[in-house]
Amino acid sequence: MTQDALFNETDIFHRECLRFCFMDVIQAELNRIRHDWNRHNINKSRKNEHVPTGRPHMIYSDPERYNTRSYHRNINQVDINFLKQQFPFEFMEHGTLPDFVNLFHQMKPRLRMPRNATEGKALYLELLQLYNRYKDNL
């Protein structure tokens, strides 16, 4: 989209619009991949005898049962506090700054969130067109 001059990374409207139109689609795909991955079976490896066999979510939940160890790591509270200061929005609907979520709904009152990349691109282009039309009339 950058090559087609449809996305300008220095324009905050473009960045927030892109997040708004694609973040839920990307998250849904990541959730599907995680679901599929955690339920597939890891077979015994001929090349590496130290690789545990079984389903990933089971190995993660009960590592000792699969002759492996837990790789959980505690996170330092100082690091958490630092990140919270750097990124003050605990929840950003659709991965987008709240003012932009409101703006997009004002621009397109009966807005439906996209369910796939094709719908995401169509919504992005529509919002971008409305934005450009508004800028041209200033």
Structure description:
The protein has 138 residues and is an all-alpha fold. The chain has a domain at 12-40 and 78-136. Helix content is 54%, strand content 0%. It contains 5 helices and no strands. It has helices at residues 12-39, 56-61, 77-86, 98-107, 117-136. Helix 1 runs antiparallel to helix 5. The protein is elongated and about 65 Å long. It starts with 11 loop residues before the first helix and ends with a helix. The model has no long low-confidence stretch (mean pLDDT 89).
Overall outline: elongated
| Fraction of residues in H or I helices | 40-55%
Assign the structural class, choosing from mainly alpha, mainly beta, alpha/beta, alpha+beta, or little secondary structure.
mainly alpha
Number of helical segments with 4 or more residues:
5
Q: How many beta-strand elements? A: 0
Secondary-structure blueprint:
Layout (H helix, E strand, L loop, with lengths): L11 H28 L16 H6 L15 H10 L11 H10 L9 H20 L2
Helix pairs in contact: 1-5
